[in-house]
Design brief:
The protein is an alpha+beta fold. Helices cover 47% and strands 20% of the residues. It is built from 10 helices and 11 strands. A hairpin with an 8-residue loop joins strand 4 and strand 5. The protein is flat, with a radius of gyration of 24 Å.
Length: 375
């Protein structure tokens, strides 16, 4: 088989292998049989809520298995077609077969990512929190660039963005900001973005035009459903009120409407200032706190707690998950997966899906990649 066709074929097989590993193929087939049997039981709908859970799991599992089998069959048929065309010297048919494999590789990648977004909270809306690191104006400007990057990414997916909390920098940029991204699988897509992000560029704030390195951290956690019960004791909370600092109208600097809640046992801190009412801000902050505590529990269950804690231990050198170099060359490099882009402008404009998809895949395979950071 010609090299181009072989490359597409290898890519498809890798995606299929990952899908099978993620689904735990034999277990998935047995589970689907069990779910089909339950659906046939007329007593299932005696409890509509439980029935809906069964139907949702069945639909997801059946879709993933059907899609995997369909790709396997089409890969086999198309590969045979190309080999036959090459044996008979039919160039037109061979080219057509390669085009089919190209489209199939793209479909396999899409289906792979869709299957990977099947975690407990993956379909939920998500909070994305950005904090500047040490370095004053430089890191605060970098934090504002990251906030814009995630807003643009959300818009590309058709998601709605709400700014929940916002603290401006002294001269430019932001000290911190928290956004609520609303849309299907928002948390599933964004969850691997938690960590420290590093920027290298010629500083626009340096009159000597020297190259600067800046750091900012990103924290991602899901908005939780009402069905999920998170027990929080009032005695464990420290609640502070203060005057909001972002844009928002005349009331913004005249009333102590903003609310900050600290969960003393864990040290988790959340804040909200986007509403005029202190009561509404407190309610939103409580929802954020529940989401943060739930995300901690998810991380523990996924055996990722150690990595997560290491990722947020310090906003500085040695802890970054991704580097963005704007000068003297153009490169974005993920230090977990090795995925790169030579167009930082596109990445900073929200082109993040390749990085997110690779990180999601890595969570399934567990494969570590030895990646050197860029200078």
């Amino acid at each position: 088989m010609r090299a181009e066709a072989q490359n597409y074929s290898d890519s498809i097989k890798q995606a299929l292998d990952l899908l099978r590993r993620f689904l735990d193929w034999d277990r998935a087939l047995r589970r689907l049989d069990e779910l089909n049997a339950r659906v046939e039981d007329p007593k299932l709908w005696d409890n509509p809520k439980a029935a809906q859970v069964v139907m949702t799991e069945r639909r997801r599992l059946d879709g993933a298995i059907t899609a995997t089998r369909a790709i396997e069959i089409e890969l086999s048929d198309t590969s045979e077609l190309i080999e036959m065309a090459e044996a008979e010297g039919d160039e037109e048919m061979a080219v057509e077969g390669v085009a089919v494999l190209r489209a199939l590789a793209k479909r396999a990648e899409t289906d792979k990512v869709a299957a990977l977004l099947a975690g407990e909270a993956d379909n939920n809306d998500t909070y994305i929190e950005v904090n500047s690191g040490a370095g004053g104006t430089e890191s605060q400007d970098w934090a504002s660039m990251l906030q814009r990057m995630y807003q643009r990414w959300a818009e590309k997916h058709g998601y709605k963005v709400e700014v929940i909390d916002f603290h401006s920098g002294e001269q430019a940029g932001i000290k911190s900001a928290t956004m609520l991204i609303k849309g299907p699988q928002a948390y599933g897509w964004a969850k691997t973005e938690s960590g420290v992000h590093r920027l290298v560029r010629i500083s626009p704030y340096d009159s000597a035009a020297r190259r600067h390195t800046s750091f900012a951290s990103v924290w991602v956690y899901p908005q939780i459903d009402d069905d999920i019960d998170i027990d929080i004791k009032e005695s464990d909370l420290k609640i502070d009120t203060y005057r909001a600092s972002g844009a928002g109208g005349q009331h913004i600097n005249t009333t102590d409407s903003a609310v900050r809640i600290t969960h003393m046992p864990t040290g988790v801190v959340v804040a909200c200032q986007n509403e005029r009412s202190q009561h509404k801000n407190k309610a939103t902050a409580m929802n954020m706190l529940k989401a943060r505590l739930y995300e901690r529990e998810l991380a523990i269950r996924e055996a990722a707690a150690a990595d997560v804690e290491a990722g947020k231990s310090e906003i500085g050198w040695g802890h970054q998950i991704r580097s963005y170099v704007l000068q003297p060359y153009q490169l974005v490099k993920d230090l977990r997966t090795g995925v790169t882009s030579t167009s930082p402008s596109d990445v900073l404009d929200g082109d993040l899906d390749p990085f997110m998809a690779a990180a999601l895949s890595q969570r399934v395979t567990g494969d570590s990649v030895d990646v050197e950071d860029v200078d």
